[in-house]
Amino acid sequence: MPAKAAAPKATVLTSKAEEELRGALNALGSDDFEEREEASRKLKEMGTEVHAKLKASLEAAKDPEVRSRLLSILNPRPVGSVKTTVLVAHDGWVVLETGSTENVKVGDRFAIRREESSVGAVTVHRVSEELALAVVLAGEPAHGDQAVSQK
What we know:
Shape: elongated
Structural class: alpha+beta
Number of helices: 4
Oligomer: single chain
Largest sheet: 6 strands, antiparallel, barrel
CATH class of the largest domain: Mainly Beta
Radius of gyration: 19 Å
Number of strands: 6
């Protein structure tokens, strides 16, 4: 009779690490963008040891921003530049053609280029099937401009 595979060992965190984990998870839903960014960075730095707890948090999360950030930590995409096109630019927002939800994640930053010049920057706010809604950080993007991800 074959031996049963051993159950994976549960990661035991120190009380300080557990407190940092809880704080970072709570901060993912903050109203402050920089606080959410810092929380994401901290969770990524904690590594795979906390993935089981992140998966449990993902299952319980109702906030789309929190879910998106947890998914990007648990399933990072390969490093590489994403190039896309500005479809619509209006009142501080742009719509980018992304091709799929695999190419672009909430929080991604893009440099906006027109011909060979940099004309602005945007950060992705929402992602759907083949489009992304991004807030303009600088400049005045226009229809047809190229958006290149900043890694």
